[in-house]
Amino acid sequence: MTATTTRTGLALSDVTLAFGDGDSQVVALDHVDLTVTPGEIVAIVGPSGAGKSSLLAVAGGLTRPTSGSVVVGGTDLTSLSGAALARFRRDNVGFVFQSGNLVPALTAIDQLRLVEKITGRRAVKPPVQLLAAVGMADHAKRRPGKLSGGERQRVGIARALVASPSVLLVDEPTAALDRRRSHEIVELLARQTHDFGVATVMVTHDHDVLEHCDRVLEMVDGRLAAV
Ligand SMILES: Nc1ncnc2c1ncn2[C@@H]1O[C@H](COP(=O)(O)OP(=O)(O)OP(=O)(O)O)[C@@H](O)[C@H]1O
User: Fold this and answer.
1) Which residues of the chain have pLDDT under 70?
2) 101 φ, ψ to 5°?
3) What is the ipTM of this complex?
4) Domain ABC transporter spans what residues (predicted)?
């Protein structure tokens, strides 16, 4: 069996996330069900304050839901204690943020090697190959200050794949990019999702890039619905 068929992606079942209580209670996620299979990229759109970032935070084990279950690669995150959850997240969840979130002092290749060092695990593909897969082989020795926004985003995507995560969570990856680069980045995310068999959830305001995704869902008032 390949790694793809043994993994189970992401499953959120009846997830609710509430902040505060009484009159001031805010329900950020309201009985959300979401299953993303390995090799599938799902886009989440929706108005500001609808709960999109909350969904990513809960799916990645950064925030515990008030109720419901979150299963990543077959493990129920709600069953893990703090330290175990942090370890699990490090080894199984990849995050890609708006601007790449790279370490300024490190070259592109060293951003990837740092993850190998921190996790103590060798990447499934060597860092050089991961950089080549995102079209950054020629820029391996450059630091973020010498890269464009799109290039930084590519390195961020390669870095998120180092630990061979079950789940890739992507927040507004095209916010800092022009139209052409936005298409390139989301096409790349979709290709890597399919090639690596990772279950990807991407939050975006950019309706232009939705064509590259396997499924589009809309979040309104903490609820998810098909578009
Ligand atoms: N730590 C918190 N404490 C209290 N309320 C919060 C907290 N985090 C988020 N919220 C509230 O939960 C709701 C959902 O917020 P969330 O950031 O998930 O929305 P979003 O769809 O990502 O918005 P945007 O598109 O503006 O980033 C909002 O009403 C927000 O004010």
Assistant:
1) 1-7, 100
2) 50, 50
3) 0.96
4) 10-227
Ligand 1 mean position, distance from CA 93 (Å): 21
Give the mutation target among 19, 21, 220 for probing the ligand 1 site: most ligand atoms within 8 A of CB: 19
**Separation of alpha carbons 64 and 209, rounded Å:** 30
Total Cβ atoms within 10 A of residue 120: 8
pLDDT for the residue numbered 98: 76
- Which residues contact residue 74 at a Cβ distance below 8 angstroms, ignoring those fewer than 6 apart? 7, 8
Strands (E), the chain: 10-19, 26-36, 41-45, 67-72, 75-76, 93-96, 167-171, 199-203, 215-220, 223-226
The reported pLDDT for the residue numbered 110 is 95
Q: Which residues contact 117 (CB under 8 A, 6 or more apart)?
A: none
In contact, 96 and 157? CB cutoff 8 Å: yes
In tens, the pLDDT along 98-144 reads: 776 899 999 999 999 998 888 777 777 889 988 988 889 999 999 99
* Ligand 1 atom closest to 205 (CA): 25
**Architecture of the CATH domain 3-226:** 3-Layer(aba) Sandwich (3.40)
Distance CA 63, CA 38 (A): 22
